[in-house]
Amino acid sequence: MNGRHGSGYELRTSTTMRTAAALSLALALGLASCAGNESSSPTTTGSTSTTSGPPWTPVADQPLADAPLLTATDGMLEVDLRTAMESIDVSGAQIQAMGYNGMINGPTLALAPGDKLRVTLDNATKEPTNIHYHGLHVSPSGDGDNVMRHFDPGSTNVSEITIPDDHDTGLFWYHAHMHALTDQQVYSGMRGLIVIGDLVGTHLPPEYADITERLLAVNDGYDQGGVMADKANAMTDATIMVNGLATPTWDIAPGETQLWRFANTGSDLFYQLALDGHRFWIVAEDGSPVWRVTEADTVFLPPGKRMEVLVQGGAPGTHTLVSQAIQVGPGSGNAQPEVKVATVEVAGDPVTPLAVPTELRGPRTEDLSTAEVAERREFVFTMQATGTEFAFINGEPFDPDRIDVEPKLGTVEEWVLKNPDTGESTTSADHPFHIHVNDFQVMSIDGKPYEANGLQDIVVIPSGSEVVIRQRFADFTGEFVFHCHILPHEDGGMMQTVNVVEG
Ligand SMILES: [Cu+2]
Predict the structure, then answer these.
(1) CATH annotation of 203-346
(2) Ligand 1 center to residue 422 CA distance, Å?
(3) pTM check: above 0.85
(4) Strand order in 271-275's β-sheet?
(5) What is the pLDDT of residues 302-338, one digit of tens each?
């Protein structure tokens, strides 16, 4: 059973939704006063509020490990996922969580352009769910990348997509996208990585063929009475994890070149990664190859974002990968302190560093700066301090029965994304904009031309700023959404529906 709008579901779970959304609001707005009350406040896990367990004591500093890798064969990858609220081993200790197949970072799905993916999802939780393939250029219709579907509790549903032959190679991810429950389902563990194609073989020089690649899914966990929860904008008390391990350790030889493939698969925290004594060379952003390889001191990962970077081992010794102290909105609740993310051991025999390319080989994504613009539209992102539906686009919360935008297939549109600063710490925040199905190019920020370095699927609209983007609605008609990727904001209403129609 997965009716488009699941009419029966609202009645059964409206209390859950209100509880979850209200608490999400408090958390999203950075209300530090909540912090002292977790044990007595309603759980953020909605219908699972009666669940509790012993304290979670994750083991830090373990060697990095990967999620299980599932690879397509003969053009097809069939994956069975089961989600349930159950006791899961997370970084060496048990905690109640709703992951996929007993993990809070599900299996990594590896496909080549042209392959098909068929996911059979057994929903053994007490709440509806669904599945979204973040960043993939695939059909949003029917049983494809369709987040309008509801997979009812106790039901098993199939989702099937075909990766186009000319799809970008890079890092993507999948996660639950059930409106009003997305935040809790993602932080509880309904997520995993997707690798499309061979980034190294397609885009890097031949001498890079054998470099070590690391898949690095970064997110946070928080023990709320033995149940996996999160603390939006309160990074201090959260456990920062990579691939589900608390601040793990990995190594690199002096001079060795590795490809580190970062994804922020958390629900609301931003990471700005830095490694002492090291620099990064960005080769892909949001699963899209860059137009020029750029050198950077930090890797900025708003929620949902992927950045794939080359790193060369520096001086032998122990180095700490941190997320730097950053401000992700004007209010005090939007200050994130510096936290440790991982330990990198530079050890072993020195290696002669490879020459870092300035440009990539292989297919290049379309530059939309000279494209004919068929339509210009404006979207204003705002929040209010109270209410279940507290986050808006153009003054309205999300309504699945409303079509907000109807672009014509194949055309390019220019969108102005505005985030007015209300001056209130409870209603101002930076909003990471994300749209399904198609990538976009950033054209300007606050009126200043932006030197884009490729296409992307996440861009932060800073509080008090406006960002102009262009996107081509290529290949696929049908309904999909755009939203803020701070998931409590999405659940709170900051989402709209696009319906691409034949021209
Ligand atoms: Cu937001």
Answers:
(1) 2.60.40.420
(2) 14
(3) yes
(4) 249-252, 339-346, 317-323, 271-275, 299-301
(5) 999 999 999 999 999 999 999 999 999 887 778 888 9
